[in-house]
Amino acid sequence: MATKLNDILKQVAVLEVKGQTSITIEGIIFDSRKAAEGMLFVAVKGTQADGHAYIADVVKRGVKAVVCETLPEQLESEVTYIKVADTTEALGRLADAFYEFPSKELKLVGITGTNGKTTTATLLFNAVRSMGYKAGLLSTVANYIEDRVLDATHTTPDAVELNKLLREMVDEGCSYCFMEVSSHAIVQRRIAGLKFAGAVFSNITHDHLDYHKTFDEYIKAKKLFFDDLDASAFALTNTDDRNGKVMVQNTKASVHSYSLKSASDFKCKIIENDFDGMQLKIDGLEVWTRFIGEFNAYNLLAVYSTGILLGFAKEEMLTVLSAMTPVSGRFEYVRSKQKITAIVDYAHTPDALLNVVSTINKIRKPEQKFITVVGAGGNRDKTKRPVMARIAVENSDMVILTSDNPRNERAEDILDDMKAGIPEGSAAKVLVIVDRKEAIKTACAISRANDIILVAGKGHETYQEINGVKHHFDDKEVLREVFESI
Ligand SMILES: CC(=O)N[C@H]1[C@@H](OP(=O)(O)OP(=O)(O)OC[C@H]2O[C@@H](n3ccc(=O)[nH]c3=O)[C@H](O)[C@@H]2O)O[C@H](CO)[C@@H](O)[C@@H]1O[C@H](C)C(=O)N[C@@H](C)C(=O)N[C@H](CCC(=O)O)C(=O)O
Ligand SMILES: Nc1ncnc2c1ncn2[C@@H]1O[C@H](COP(=O)(O)OP(=O)(O)OP(=O)(O)O)[C@@H](O)[C@H]1O
Ligand SMILES: N[C@H](CCC[C@H](N)C(=O)O)C(=O)O
Ligand SMILES: [Mg+2]
């Protein structure tokens, strides 16, 4: 794909131009390490580096045009320099234009919130496909164009990758795309210029304070997504969340709401909840689903409401919900011959963990012992570590604190942060085992028939990142292996 620079520049507010704009560019990059002949380089200021420092380098390597906030002192005559006020925003808009506005040719629905994005987006993708439509999915677990699976490195891809994927979806005949919109993606304008048919808010609780600094800033980041929607879109919000109404208070989109408790447009009631599934009453009709826990009732209701807002019939949506199966690594069971039930769940925030342990406690019988194995990621929000440990200890019979993805931190340091959250007098029910496999093995070894083990935090992940290196690791695989051997 190639395009005329002056065509795509129409999408950004240009402050100054040095050089020719009637040139053809072969692609857009924002990482100097990917520089190649004929490309447009956008210099972005990040958290670690400033793209402006690499302008001279990319020019040497054949880049034809540069978009920047400050023009370099030395300009090369064969290169075009474009000055804008905000290169991060420009990058999104240029990528959108370069791929010829693919989001306008799809019904694109974005899901934002601390928890439930992957679940809701994946179920929507499965739902429309089961009704015969072609669709794409951009999620933490993987990106999909129909059956084609593409690895995902981020929850929301960067602007160039994102628009490229949307273009491929359009070219392959997809009429829908469901995507997770992370708060990082909103702030970093990965979604700038996209046309959303709808936006869904699930909830906002403690996470990512390493990046957003305060909870208020985190709320503002999420709200920006709704502020930017246009009048033809729908904004669907969860009014049981304390910030559900705030999210949509300045949007131009038509506002709709869902809830289990407060007043809203789409209502759901849990009739029955056990380890096999939930009987729900949605919009006055009962439906049996294979999902467990109140938090999943919210996700299913969000899926149902979005379906209705996209124009699907009520009965059709409920039939689809009843046939759905859980998403990889979200409350997934691994059972042993001795009838020990292990639950693998991606709960990696305090709220998600509290939801999962509360769900298990509501459903289990008093004689079923409940052991939680949990850690916390390195190079991420440190303040959630003691909170997660406290939640695990207060709501389980026994807890094994272990490593998640230590990334570039010392696993022992992360565990020290977690240990600070153990309530006084509870130390006796906590073990600390740094090696995650050993931790899971120990949990299995001390369990008896009918007991429950929750392995939280990594869900679908098939690696463990230690000292910046990814090693193969899969909670489900480890559990199966251990269960085979006992
Ligand atoms: C904190 C964060 O979001 N970081 C993302 C951000 O990096 P950054 O701002 O730190 O970039 P930087 O390293 O300072 O570099 C600034 C600019 O200089 C450029 N550069 C840098 C070095 C060089 O040699 N040459 C060069 O041109 C970089 O390409 C970049 O354009 O922009 C990069 C390019 O798009 C992302 O890859 C990177 O994601 C990092 C790897 C990351 O871990 N992100 C996570 C936290 C993230 O985005 N998570 C969210 C949400 C997850 C959730 O909700 O659960 C997600 O959407 O995945
Ligand atoms: N609606 C919900 N409310 C609260 N917790 C939830 C909800 N849905 C799922 N969870 C919990 O959060 C975990 C992550 O769910 P999911 O992957 O759907 O969220 P996500 O928003 O995509 O997360 P990420 O930010 O990592 O992309 C689940 O394993 C479960 O423990
Ligand atoms: N998207 C989240 C995932 C966290 C998953 C957990 N296993 C961890 O590594 O902290 C993040 O990057 O913060
Ligand atoms: Mg996700």
Automatic annotation (TrEMBL):
Carboxylation is probably crucial for Mg(2+) binding and, consequently, for the gamma-phosphate positioning of ATP. It catalyses: UDP-N-acetyl-alpha-D-muramoyl-L-alanyl-D-glutamate + meso-2,6-diaminopimelate + ATP = UDP-N-acetyl-alpha-D-muramoyl-L-alanyl-gamma-D-glutamyl-meso-2,6-diaminopimelate + ADP + phosphate + H(+). It comes from the Bacteria. Residues 25-99 form the Mur ligase N-terminal catalytic domain. Pathway: Cell wall biogenesis; peptidoglycan biosynthesis. A motif (Meso-diaminopimelate recognition motif) lies at residues 404-407. One of its GO terms (biological process) is peptidoglycan biosynthetic process. Transmembrane segments: none annotated. One of its GO terms (cellular component) is cytoplasm. Its cofactor is Mg(2+). Its EC number is 6.3.2.13. This is UDP-N-acetylmuramoyl-L-alanyl-D-glutamate--2,6-diaminopimelate ligase.
